[in-house]
Write a structure and sequence with these properties.
The complex is a heterodimer of chains A (362) and B (758).
Chain A (H helix, E strand, L loop, with lengths): L8 E2 L6 E6 L5 E6 L3 E8 L4 E9 L5 E6 L7 E6 L4 E6 L11 E7 L6 E6 L7 E6 L3 E6 L10 E7 L13 E5 L8 E6 L2 E7 L5 E7 L6 E6 L8 E7 L4 E9 L25 H4 L20 E10 L6 E6 L5 E6 L3 E7 L5 E8 L4
Antiparallel strand pairs in A: 2-3, 3-4, 4-5, 6-7, 7-8, 8-9, 10-11, 11-12, 12-13, 14-15, 15-16, 16-17, 18-19, 19-20, 20-21, 22-23, 23-24, 24-25
Chain B lengths: L5 H4 L1 E2 L5 E2 L7 E3 L10 H6 L2 E7 L5 E8 L15 E6 L9 H18 L21 H43 L2 H24 L3 H15 L5 H8 L8 H13 L3 H10 L5 H4 L1 H15 L9 H17 L11 H14 L3 H7 L3 H11 L7 H11 L9 H11 L2 H11 L3 H12 L7 E4 L1 H7 L7 E3 H14 L5 H11 L2 H10 L8 H14 L2 H18 L2 H11 L2 H18 L6 H8 L11 H19 L2 H7 L1 H5 L5 H14 L3 H10 L7 H21 L1 H5 L8 H8 L11 H23 L1
Antiparallel strand pairs in B: 1-2, 4-5, 5-6, 7-8
Helix pairs in contact in B: 3-4, 3-22, 4-5, 5-6, 5-17, 6-15, 8-9, 8-13, 9-11, 12-13, 15-16, 17-18, 18-19, 19-21, 21-22, 22-23, 24-25, 25-26, 26-27, 27-29, 27-37, 33-34
The chains are: A mainly beta (362), B mainly alpha (758).
């Protein structure tokens, strides 16, 4: 029997949905919307339908992202909003479904000076940790020092990805993704406007800029770091306003090599992008920031070589979302052609579009 | 950017499958897709965009309509726009059907031994065994016997693969007939292409010489059914079928040149040619002889070529004697002439074979059948066939191009093309080619040593062959389908490389253990591969899941087994905290009964570290059971004597709990809900006392009162403020909250004291 996909279902949100998140086992789904609500659905294994678990007003502005933590830490959900706050929620199994009290607010963090755009839990081997980026251009990393106590979060890293926030009248976008590999040093990629920055932890447990993702000619809408699954290199995909899905290959060299400084990085482009913010204009002077590269070389860091593996303009328009599957073998992208495209590498490491899912009726 | 209007640009393939005009790959559509036909441009103008999320455990996902949160919110959101649209990723698997999954499971079983420890690499290679000293004849004989044995193993594997593929295609064909599914038809067409390629590989490289004719015949006749059943019907529609010229000038020749000897004999026998015996005895005898010589063709020719040569000599004699055959009636001349032509083909005359053939593969097989069925002449036959029936590589079928690559020895091209048809089967075919030693010098396409050196991953030093890459890839795909996870893990375990260990260690914590057996399976894999930290992760993930489900004891046992004592302590203290705050035991009968009935400890897995961490809760549980502090003090002297907490503190706790064990605050609330007339005097007094306490507390923490407290005073409110962990350092608003807070603080103190003692 072909496995029939579940039919579309109404979420009941009164405004557009901004994000959907699965839990670790794909048995629970959280949605968030401009209607300031979060809704959680449970998968009924008997009927294969999604049943509302609970719905509640979570923020005072559009809720732009929800994410589940690894089950190692409990049933935890984090949300961010344009109201500048991060909220941590935990499911209370003693409360009835649909009561509006099923998910208890455990913490509210409000350090950001601007609307938040992205949040992501670090891979579980790094502990209970979240990274956020907002319109103030600051990457903030919080740790629950005691993972059993999610009421208290400590700001452990704060990095000015941009020296100044983008002008409010310009379009902007921010996103981040953690390196999921437990066999590689702690890293994450942060995209701010049209630039992608890769940060890695130094011996002082601080994130420092390691390298950049080159070649973007517009706002980066989405970034996804692939599970490495035994590969000796890492893959990162970006979806960009310039219409390209890009796949980068990162190879790391352990220690004893200096990390490239800003001069070595791609700073050759100086054109601004019409109507959009550009990180080049707003980019921080990393050499003056203690949190970043500083003196330019840190022997404890791995050298990361970035190579653009392939770029694809098949969407013929803006690319809004990219995401790797569980094994990092298939990349999915969605764009202005209202299609989801699936990309897979051949044995010769060339990515090819292998199928398309259209949101347009036949 | 301009968006292509899809209704104008969608193309169809030969099977009626919609193809994307940009990528030229099949398009699927979301069920009840939200955007009307040709409506993408208008949809974009509303500021909407398409987004999705992928399921972390399989290849499914959810698509949804979204927009930049900054866009004008005054635009109305229609109900369809807040729907979620589930979809299935069509991954590199040809399909997600049960039939296909079963086929892949069979493939793994079939190849398991060959994959183990990468045995397929150089399976028949000469350098498999290094010999020292003088090589004696006996060694060579032993080695040859072993090689022959190994070749037979490969032949058997190939034969089973071929047969499984055949079964799969039959099953799917039947299903498609019932369901009329165009997508399934497309998948089937790709499988059929692979079958043609597989059959040829089987015939050429994985068969004994005596099997080759039979396998080539199967190959060509699966490609197309020639001559067609319609032709036979037309011939048989004659009262005397032998009088139908089509029988002689087309039908019999086609059957014979495609190796269908038995069908040719049967047709001749059914043609009623016996009546020629009366008037055309010569012709009758010729047909009899033809049947006889066809009957004597053995599909086992090839083992010893002299048998074939003998047969061919007979055939030549027959052909040479044919000139003496007299035909009385002119209408029978067509029979005589065509039999002669057939005999010329059967004697292997190249020009006659080419004249009779309609395709390169037909010409190729006929030459193999009748010129000399020898393996060494295959490429020569192929080149002659291609010279006369050239392949247009841009328009010809994929299978045809693949067969060409195979015969020419372009194995990399071949693999690349099969990979485009199906990324699972290609892995198994590649293993066979590698095992046969056909990849020759370019089997190691990726030497990763340098990269691993750079990474400092010494244990991961290794090279990868094409087959290993494809197999790894296939294993990863299997891991995305729960039904195929054992296959994926099985492949990786068989490969037994550092890379496959890395993959398994990263994957296993994501595998959902639905039953204890699943968990045991994960643990056994970790044990086999010595993946200690992975086992710990798997245990912790499953322990957390059980904890949230309320299966506390099972959860704690897993936490204990994971070796993470810190988490175990946290969870045990969480249990104690909840119990203290609720003034009741936890809702887990197992854990409570185990604690209260120590005898059962012997029969059940109750790790020592768990017993230790649960001691405080055990003490509390005993207290709850006894309900008498004197008894508690006496009977459990041991517990607090073990310096868990001081006796004084312990009594404080008991008193606190005792005073509120009837849930005093809730009781007051209930009294307040009642009609005052129905309340007893005692209840009324309690309400008054509580309200007085509440008022007193509110007075005590109001700003005016607080402003009068000197910082130097050891006032309880200042101490409370210092104790409060809350960011805002705010007093609890009600007396009820204050009581709860005190309970938590006491619990924290208890926990801290316990941890300090550890």
């Amino acid at each position: 029997m072909m496995k029939e996909p579940i039919k579309p279902f109404a979420t009941g949100h009164e405004e557009l949905i901004h994000n959907v998140a699965y839990d670790f086992y794909g048995k629970q789904l959280a949605t968030c919307s401009s209607d300031q609500h979060i809704k959680v659905f449970d998968l009924d294994p008997l009927t294969s339908t999604w049943v509302l678990n609970d719905s509640w007003k979570a923020h005072d502005s559009s809720v732009v992202k929800v994410v589940f933590a690894s089950p190692e830490f409990g049933h935890i959900l984090a949300s961010i909003s344009f109201d500048r706050t991060i909220k941590i929620w935990e499911e209370d199994f003693d409360e009835q479904n649909g009561s509006g009290r099923r998910w208890k607010k455990m913490a509210t963090i409000s350090d950001s000076y601007g609307p938040l755009y992205d949040i992501s839990f670090a891979p579980s081997h790094l502990g209970l940790r979240i990274g956020t980026i907002g319109n103030d251009g600051i990457l903030r990393v919080y740790d629950a020092i005691e993972p059993s106590d999610i009421r208290h979060w400590t700001l452990t890293n704060e990095i000015n990805v941009l020296s100044s926030p983008p002008a409010p009248q310009l379009q902007s976008d921010f996103s981040l993704s953690w390196c999921p590999s437990r066999f590689s040093s702690e890293k994450l990629v942060v995209c701010a406007l049209d630039q992608g920055f890769i940060y890695q932890k130094n011996k002082n447990d601080k994130f420092v800029l390691a390298t950049q993702l080159p070649e973007h000619n517009g706002l980066i809408r989405s970034v996804s770091w692939a599970p490495s699954m035994g590969r000796y290199y890492q893959l990162i995909a970006t979806g960009c306003k310039d219409g390209l899905v890009r796949i980068f290959k990162l190879t790391e060299t352990i220690g004893n090599k200096s990390v490239p400084n800003d001069d070595q990085m791609d700073t050759s482009r100086d054109e601004d992008i019409e109507g959009t913010g550009s990180a080049l204009n707003a980019r921080n002077d990393h050499n003056n920031n203690n949190n970043n590269i500083g003196s330019g070389a840190d022997n404890s860091l791995n050298h990361i070589h970035v190579e653009l593996l392939s770029s694809h303009d098949d969407h013929k328009g803006e690319v809004w979302k990219v995401k790797w599957n569980l094994t990092g073998s298939i990349l999915s992208s969605a764009g202005d052609d209202a299609k989801i495209r699936l990309w897979k590498a051949t044995y010769s490491n060339k990515f090819q579009c292998m199928s398309v899912i259209s949101a347009q009726q036949k | 950017m301009a968006i292509l209007e899809e209704e104008e640009s969608v193309t169809m393939d030969q099977g009626g499958i919609e193809l994307d005009p940009v990528s030229n790959v099949p398009i699927k559509r979301l069920i009840d897709a939200p955007i009307p036909v040709g409506g993408v441009d208008n949809w974009l103008k509303t500021g909407r965009d398409l987004k999705f999320e992928l399921n972390p455990v399989d290849n499914s996902g959810i698509a949804y309509i979204s927009s930049n949160p900054n866009v004008d919110k005054s635009k109305k959101c229609f109900p369809e726009e807040s729907k979620l649209y589930p979809f299935q990723l069509t991954d590199s698997m040809n399909d997600n059907s049960d039939e296909f999954f079963n086929f892949l499971k069979n493939c793994f079983k079939n190849f398991e031994e060959l994959i183990k420890n990468k045995d397929y690499h150089n399976f028949l290679g000469q350098n498999k065994e290094v010999q020292f000293g003088v090589i004696i004849e006996e060694d060579i004989e032993t080695k040859n016997a072993r090689l022959e044995e190994r070749q037979l193993i490969l032949n058997g594997i190939m034969s089973r693969l071929s047969s499984d593929l055949d079964n799969l295609i039959n099953q799917k064909s039947l299903k498609i007939e019932e369901q009329q599914d165009s997508e399934a038809s497309h998948n089937l067409a790709q499988l059929v292409d692979i079958m043609h390629i597989t059959n040829l590989i089987h015939a050429i490289y994985f068969s004994k010489p005596s099997e080759k004719i039979g396998l080539l015949t199967i190959w060509i006749n699966k490609i197309e059914i020639e001559p067609s059943v319609e032709v036979l019907k037309e011939i048989m529609s004659f009262e005397k079928p032998y009088k139908n010229p089509l029988l002689w000038n087309y039908y019999i020749k086609k059957l014979v040149s495609r190796g269908l000897f038995q069908q040719a004999i049967n047709t001749l026998k059914e043609s009623k040619f016996e009546e020629l015996e009366q008037n055309e005895n010569d012709l009758f005898l010729v047909i009899e002889d033809l049947i006889s010589i066809l009957n004597s063709y053995q599909t086992q020719f090839g083992t010893e070529n002299f048998e074939f040569i003998e047969w061919k000599q007979k055939c030549c004699e027959f052909r040479d004697n044919f000139v003496n055959v007299k035909v009385k009636e002119t209408e029978n001349l067509v029979i005589k002439d065509n039999i002669h032509e057939l005999l010329v083909i059967m004697t292997g005359l190249q020009s006659a074979i080419i004249k009779n053939s309609t395709s390169w593969y037909e010409c190729f097989v006929t030459k193999y059948l009748f010129e000399l069925p020898s393996e060494t002449l295959i490429s020569q036959y192929l080149y002659t066939s291609l010279e006369n029936f050239p392949i247009n590589e841009t328009v010809s079928d994929t299978w045809s191009q693949c067969c060409l690559d195979l015969i020419k020895g372009n194995y990399l091209n071949l693999i690349r093309k099969i990979e485009n048809l199906d990324k699972s089967i290609v892995a198994y075919l590649s293993i066979l080619l590698e095992a046969k030693g056909l990849y020759g010098d370019y089997d190691f396409i990726l030497s990763m040593q340098e990269e691993f050196d750079n990474l400092g991953l010494n244990e991961a030093k290794e090279s990868q062959t094409i087959s290993e890459l494809l197999l790894n890839d296939h294993a990863l795909e299997c891991l995305c389908h729960r039904d195929l996870t054992p296959v994926g893990i099985g492949i990786l375990m068989c490969l037994n490389s550092a890379k496959s260990r890395l993959i398994i260690s990263q994957y296993l914590p994501h595998y959902e253990c639905k039953t204890n057996d699943d968990l045991e399976w994960c643990m056994s894999i970790c044990a086999k591969l010595s993946l200690g930290s992975t086992a710990s992760s798997v245990l912790k993930v499953n322990a957390s899941k059980l904890f949230t489900q309320g299966n506390l004891f099972e959860s704690l046992v897993l936490f204990a087994k994971s070796g993470d004592l810190k988490v175990l302590k946290d969870k045990c203290w969480l249990i104690l905290e909840n119990s203290l705050v609720k003034n009741a035991s936890v809702k887990d009968d197992l854990i409570n009964s185990l604690i209260l009935s120590d005898k059962k400890f012997q029969d059940i897995d109750f790790p020592a570290n768990l017993r230790q961490c649960l001691a405080p809760y055990a003490l509390f549980l005993l207290f709850l059971q006894k309900k008498n502090k004197k008894i508690i003090k006496r009977e459990n002297q041991d517990y607090y004597n073990k310096s868990l907490v001081s006796q004084e503190d312990f009594i404080k706790i008991i008193e606190l709990i005792e005073n509120f064990e009837d849930n005093f605050v809730d009781l007051i609330k209930q009294f307040k809900k009642k009609n005052p007339v129905n309340l007893t005097q005692k209840e009324k007094n309690l309400i008054i006392q509580f309200d007085d306490c509440q008022s007193l507390y509110e007075f005590a923490v109001c700003d005016e009162t607080l402003s009068k407290i000197s910082n130097s005073e050891k006032d309880w409110r200042l101490i409370l403020l210092e104790t409060l962990n809350d960011q805002h350092k705010k007093f609890p608003e009600t007396l009820e909250e204050l009581i709860l807070l005190y309970r938590k603080c006491i619990n924290r103190e208890l926990s801290y004291a316990f941890l300090q003692q550890k």
